[in-house]
Write a structure and sequence with these properties.
By secondary structure, the protein is of the alpha+beta class. It contains 10 helices and 15 strands. Helix content is 31%, strand content 28%. The strands form 3 sheets. Strands 1, 2, 3, 4, 5 and 6 form a 6-stranded mixed β-sheet that branches. Strands 10, 11, 12, 13, 14 and 15 form a 6-stranded mixed β-sheet that branches. A 3-stranded antiparallel β-sheet has the order 7-8-9, with no helix packed on it. The structure holds zinc ion. Zinc ion binds next to loops.
Length: 332
């Protein structure tokens, strides 16, 4: 049976997941103090995370992809930018998110010729974990703000308040408030004795296998969602479920809650959602990865993390290293 390393607590385990930005003080108590926010915005310590069509600004350096932040002077030159969203502070800088339109994008790129606007999911494989977290946080808020431009009750335009963290309907008779929303999803590595289960969705790229996952439904606990999804996708009944860690996943708006679950037995069957489910022992997983018959989710995903921890526990080896070796072999 899979044993999670209980010598580290869940906060430590979650912090190993990409996009966790818990170390940023979110300054919640300052969001409604407009004078304080304005002073922070105009101080030398202000850094602005630009987002253009949900894409983040990054530049390639010898350390991989690095986040490019704008400084207060640069922002002043960008005409009519909406008021920035306060993200928080790392103790040295104040981080804000700003939305950039097509004209402003040209201006930003002219000033930062080394940079480009890119999908964070792609870029994050090769970037510093702390800054990946800041960009993910900014992207999540940007997505929410841009999809709630109008009130869901009366259809009037919404106004952005609390430094970007609250929307209020501009129709005074309605005045409905709304707050950033995330969609909880469960992701689970199912194990039975010395094997783990991976599945393949027909829409995925060829050979791609991953842990089972699905959205939590209204009126359902996280654990019930694990039981339901595993049965729906693979017709497997579970004995034990253990929460492991979580990961913000702003593609576009999820919170991934990671679990290990133990199957009653290895009987399984595919459903409409998956075209294949397969049990892998450590040896079978190694052979499949090295032989390029199975490709795994990227190491930044909690799907990979759950599998890598299981693999390490059983073999003492590093799954990321194995994937690198396989890639090297393929390109030789
Ligand atoms: Zn309204």
């Amino acid at each position: 049976m899979t044993q999670v390393d209980l010598s580290i607590d869940r906060i430590t385990r979650s912090r190993r997941n990409r996009f966790t930005s818990v170390r940023l003080d979110r300054l919640v108590e300052y969001r409604d103090k407009s004078e304080w926010v304005e002073a922070a915005q105009n101080s030398d310590a202000a850094r602005f995370v630009p987002l253009w069509h949900s894409r983040s600004l990054l530049a390639v350096s010898d350390k991989g992809q690095v986040a490019v932040y704008l400084k207060p002077g640069e922002l002043e030159r960008l005409d009519a930018i909406q008021s920035p969203t306060l993200l928080g502070t790392d103790g040295k800088r104040y981080f804000f998110a700003v939305s950039i339109n097509d004209n402003q994008r040209e201006e930003v790129l002219a000033r930062h010729p080394e940079a480009h606007f890119i999908d964070l999911r792609r870029a994050s494989m090769d970037m510093d974990a702390k800054h990946a977290g800041v960009l993910a946080y900014a992207k999540a808020l940007h997505y929410w703000q841009h999809r709630h431009i109008f009130c869901g009750v009366c259809g009037s335009p919404n106004r952005l308040l609390s430094s970007g963290h609250k929307l209020v309907c501009s129709n005074e008779e309605c005045a409905r408030q709304s707050f950033p929303r995330i969609d909880p999803a469960i992701i689970v590595l199912v194990t039975h004795q010395d094997a783990c289960l991976l599945g393949r969705n027909a829409n995925w790229p060829p050979k791609h296998f991953s842990t089972l996952a699905g959205f939590v439904e209204p009126g359902e606990s996280l654990e019930d969602a694990v039981v339901r999804e595993v049965f729906e996708e693979a017709s497997i009944r579970l004995n034990k479920i253990r929460y492991v860690s979580s990961q913000p996943w702003p593609f576009p708006a999820s919170s991934m809650c990671g679990f290990y679950a133990e199957a009653e037995n290895r009987d399984c069957a595919v459903s409409d959602e998956l075209e294949e489910v397969r049990w892998f022992t450590v040896d079978q997983l190694e052979a499949a990865v090295m032989g390029d018959s199975v490709r795994l989710s990227p190491p930044v995903s909690i799907a990979f993390r759950l599998l890598a921890d299981w693999y390490h526990k059983r073999s003492g080896k590093d799954l990321e290293q194995l994937v690198k070796q396989a890639r090297h072999l393929k390109h030789r």
